[in-house]
Amino acid sequence: GVKHCAHCTAPMMKKSRVCQRCRRMNTGTSSKYRGVRPRLRRGGDTVYQAFLWFQKQNIYIGTYATELQAATEYDVYAKEALGEEAQELLNFKTEEELQAAVASQSVHQTQLGGSVPVMMPKSR
């Protein structure tokens, strides 16, 4: 039989659960954090990729389950690559900002009633 999109019930030809139209609509093209991009996986899950623009190259850092994980890895990598120059490019300039973001994510995750799997970064 014909498969239908999980979101809009449109008939689909491919094996994906979500049609191209819904995939584009449900995936934001930006993040609230610098250096982080959301990506929709085939099963309909959203993951976050971290990138750093360095020496005229876009360097892939890794793929993570949450925006916060990707943003903190971006900060770590930016500090390693840029040193003191990275301070103005960081998502979390102080430890207090990072702790506040972690606390707000923990509250949100508790409301959802689940845990977030940790994905490993690309080896450097």
Description:
The strands form 2 sheets. Strands 3-4-5 form a 3-stranded antiparallel sheet, covered by helices on one side. The longest helix has 18 residues. It is elongated, with a radius of gyration of 17 Å. The chain has 3 helices and 5 strands. It has 124 residues and is α+β, with helices and mostly antiparallel strands. A hairpin with a 5-residue loop joins strand 3 and strand 4.
**Mean pLDDT across all residues, rounded?**
76
What is the overall number of helices?
A: 3
Content-based structural category? alpha+beta
How many strand units?
A: 5
Strand content: 15-25%
Largest beta sheet: strand ordering: 3-4-5
Instruction: Outline the low-pLDDT stretches.
Output: 108-120
Q: What's the alpha carbon Rg, rounded to whole Å? A: 17 Å
N→C terminal distance = 46 Å
Fraction of helical residues = 25-40%
What best-fitting shape do the alpha-carbon axes yield?
Answer: elongated
SSE blueprint and pairings:
Layout: E1 3-4, E2 11-12, H1 20-26, E3 36-40, E4 46-54, E5 57-64, H2 67-82, H3 95-112
Antiparallel strand pairs: 1-2, 3-4, 4-5
Keywords:
single chain, 124 residues, alpha+beta, 3-stranded antiparallel beta sheet, two-stranded antiparallel ribbon, 3 helices, 33% helix, 21% strand
Summarize the structure.
This protein has 124 residues and is an alpha+beta fold. The chain has helices at residues 20-26, 67-82, 95-112; strands at 3-4, 11-12, 36-40, 46-54, 57-64.
